[in-house]
Amino acid sequence: MRARDGVRLLRAELAPYQRSLCAVAGLALLLSAPTALSGVLIARALDDGFFVRRAETGLWWLALLVQIQLAGAVLTRALFGPLARIVEPLRDRLVTTITAAGLDRALAGESAQPGAAVRQATGETESVRRLVATVLRNVHTTVSVAIGALAGLAAVVPVAALMLLPGLLAAVAVYRRLVKYAWKWQRKAILIEERLADDATRVFTARRDIVAFAAEPTATRQIREGVEAARHAAVRYARVGVLRSLTVSLGVDLGLLALLVLAPVLISQGSLSSGDLVAAVYYVTFGLAPAVKFLVHGGAGWLVDLIGTMTRLSEVAVGPGNRESPRQAGGSRNISLRRVSYTYSATADPVLDDVSLDIPYGQHIAVVGPSGAGKSTLASLLCGLRAPTAGSIRGGRSVALVPQEAYVFAGTVRENLAYLAPDTPDSDLLRTARLFGLDELELDRELPPNGAGLSAGERQLITLARTHLSPAPVVILDEATCHLDPAAEQRAELAFARRGGTLVVIAHRISSAWRAGRVLLVDAGQVVDGTHSSLLAGNSRYRELAMSWEAEPFDKGRTA
Ligand SMILES: Nc1ncnc2c1ncn2[C@@H]1O[C@H](COP(=O)(O)OP(=O)(O)OP(=O)(O)O)[C@@H](O)[C@H]1O
Q1: What is the CATH number of the domain that holds 310?
Q2: 137 and 53 fall within a common domain
Q3: Residues 357, 255: one domain?
Q4: Residue 542 lies in a domain
Q5: pLDDT of the chain, 560 residues: tens digit per residue
Q6: From atom 23 of ligand 1, which residue's Cα is the shortest distance away?
Q7: Start and end of every ABC transmembrane type-1 domain (predicted)?
Q8: What is the ipTM for the molecules in this complex?
């Protein structure tokens, strides 16, 4: 995530408006003339008019000054045409790019919440429109006024220009450092806010499950940590404001003070007239000071905001033409772990230690291992419930994890089955219910909270059928069939294997490993990859495990 990407996107989006941008720049140069001339006219009005008691001459110069200021106001009005031609189409172009990229990701199954991402991004696009308009308008005014003031100072009072130069150069040096600092914290603040918005959306949509699994404290802690992180980033960003005030003092006030202190000497030596001194003060207070203030106060903030927002959009707006599409890449539903470690606390040994593996879309995998080896930890990493403490995991979005504790909520059987796919017709609900042996349950039957009155096995079957109906491309069954007899477990696993997509079964019987095309043995922080027969032949730990599990007397129907 680099500022360069944001600047590149901004340049690309502004490229079609070069003519309008040239018009804005040309107007800035033209508008510097009234500022440059104003100081000259003030000096003349004073030195040739009022200070030598020739009021008429003084008034004549002042009348010229008024005319020049009026001409400047007319020129300023001309700015709004080219500005409107830039900012309005810019917003429309950005919204189109971002929505197209969001749809592309959603179609590729890469984004779990494409709507939220696009909503957030279109909000940021509106900020870009406002920021570009503000920055262009203010940069335009500041640049024209600063050029005019510097040109006027150098021409009329070169000695004052020399006194102001060191302070201005110091201000620019401090300003550069401030921009880097502000940039860092502004980026952090944006990312933290986005993560917070995501977390809040996820918690809100999953509130039923959160209550059912008594996970309110975890959800509350997660949101509270996000809010605290956002507050911290905002405070650090705000501190830059204090440093900016210092820069203004350095940049302008010190130079002006030096000029005023030395003015009596310069005037008595004849190297400065009283009118020139007033003109110099005019150039500084109406030209340079506002320019420096804009740069370090509003300008720096707006520029940092604009580049920060564009950098964020450059990540969201990467469209099919600019990146390898997930479909070209073999589908983002592939999951890959690279050097992944997971530790529950700083003092505990890692449950998983430097594990790398690939799970291509469509595989049927059994995960086996002794109790406490880390199978459930692996499952929660695969579905993104936990983040690795080291290494990285790619893919694995839209994963349905079915835990051991079945969750049946108060409502009809229909509502329970269709919870993850609300538009499913009754005929499909019934067909899927039959796959799991739930023929007896009527769709209209009202179930009490937690499925009271149903057996533990029936509750698991309802949860399994609900997941089977969901659109999730990857399903992880974490001992989700532990209350089923071996035959019902086989029927459920086969139903999932035939459903398509990836199936990962955290096994509690050896039969799950027989049925799977691939077996992952989790042991002592490592994952050994193989098949039931290869591990049986070559891994003593797996042999021990297989022997300790009871062999079930039923058909070993395998799936590839
Ligand atoms: N929330 C937690 N905090 C601290 N340690 C944990 C936590 N959850 C699991 N552990 C520890 O991590 C290790 C792996 O646990 P995990 O549940 O992943 O193993 P498992 O192979 O699924 O075990 P089982 O087969 O008994 O379900 C265990 O030593 C466990 O005690």
Answers
A1: 1.20.1560.10
A2: yes
A3: no
A4: yes
A5: 566 777 877 887 787 788 888 888 898 889 899 989 999 999 999 999 999 999 999 999 999 999 998 988 888 888 888 888 888 788 777 777 777 666 665 555 555 455 555 666 667 778 888 888 888 888 888 889 889 998 998 888 888 888 888 888 888 788 778 777 877 787 788 778 877 887 888 788 778 777 877 778 888 888 898 899 889 888 888 887 677 767 777 778 888 888 889 889 988 988 888 998 999 999 988 888 888 777 766 666 677 778 877 877 776 655 333 333 323 333 457 899 999 999 998 888 999 999 999 998 889 999 999 999 999 999 999 988 888 999 888 876 678 899 888 889 888 999 999 988 888 899 999 999 999 999 888 899 999 888 888 899 999 999 999 999 998 899 999 999 999 998 999 999 999 988 888 999 999 888 899 889 899 999 999 999 999 989 989 899 998 888 887 554 444 444 43
A6: 372
A7: 23-290
A8: 0.97
Domain range spanning residue 126? 3-316
Question: Do the Cβ atoms of 281 and 256 come closer than 8 Å?
Answer: yes
Give the distance (Å) from ligand 1 centre to CA of residue 378.
10
Q: Tell me whether residue 323 is in a domain.
A: no
Give phi and psi for 354, each to the nearest 5: 60, 55
Best mutation site among 218, 341, 344 for ligand 1 pocket (most ligand atoms within 8 Å of CB)? 344
Q: Which residues line ligand 1 (CB under 6 A)?
A: 344, 351, 369, 371-377
pTM given for the model? 0.48
Instruction: State whether 400 and 511 are in the same domain.
Output: yes
Q: What is the CA radius of gyration of the chain?
A: 35
Long-range CB contacts for residues 546-555, cutoff 8 Å, separation at least 24:
546/510, 546/513, 549/509, 549/510, 550/509, 550/510, 551/510, 552/486, 552/509, 552/510, 552/511, 554/486, 554/487, 554/490, 554/511, 555/490
**Atom 29 in ligand 1: which residue has the minimum CA distance?**
372
- Report the nearest atom of ligand 1 relative to the CA of 478: 22
Residues 266 and 172 in one domain: yes
